[in-house]
Amino acid sequence: NVSTTIGAAVYPRDGRRATDLLRRARIALRSEASSDEPEGRLYSPQLSTRTDEEFKLEAAVTRCVEGGTIDIVYQPKVSLSSRRITGAEALLRVHDDELGDIAPSIAIPVADRIGLTDKLGNLIVAKVAQHIAEWDLTDPVFCVGVNITGIQLCNAAFPRMLLATLDRFGVSPTRINLEITEGSLIADIER
Question: For residue 37, is pLDDT > 60?
Fold first, then answer.
């Protein structure tokens, strides 16, 4: 099977310069490529608005992941009987100077779409391991839950990366609980 995807911009309606026409044709092409039924698409200003926002989000997520500037916050798990912290769940926070806070429900699919899922996951594991190592100096020992995607779970290099990262920070593998949501696993398997 051979298929084609076409995006086009029309002179002079969509621009008078070649660079503007090519950029807008790429926007239409990108929009067409994400369509379920490819037939070709002409550029329209609505595509540009949506795509400009996507480009900004992709650039912001790339800056945060490549720059290692993501943050991890922790939701404590508390025993009702002892009223003590028995563990924590690591939660991703992404902040970009231009766009502000980017919800994990947006940042993670963007990272997936632009091929940064593994790098983001590795960064999260490294930050969690570093925090655990720091806490071990002063605080009681407990496990931290870290969410992973089905993509990471299926990546043959993931276990080696995980163990190497924990070893680098001197953290026992028993200190991290890997968690995967059913929705993430089903979505990743359907791909």
Answer: no
Q: How far apart are the C-alpha atoms of 161 and 145, rounded to whole Å?
A: 17
Which parts of the chain fold into alpha helices (H)? 18-33, 45-67, 104-113, 117-135, 150-154, 158-169, 182-190
Tokens of 104: 């994990």
How does strand 7-8 pair with strand 71-78? unpaired
How far apart are alpha carbons 15 and 93 in whole angstroms? 39
Q: What is the dihedral of CA 69, 161, 106, 4, to 10 degrees?
A: 120
More reliable by pLDDT, 45 or 145? 145
Question: Mapping DSSP to helix (H, G, I), strand (E, B) and coil, where does residue 49 land?
Answer: helix
How many angstroms separate the Cα of 146 from the Cα of each of 12, 46, 79, 88, 179?
A: 52, 38, 19, 9, 6
**Digit-coded pLDDT (tens) for 153-170:** 888 999 999 999 999 999
Closest listed residue to residue 54, CA positions, set 78, 30, 84, 25: 30
Q: What is the pTM of this model?
A: 0.72
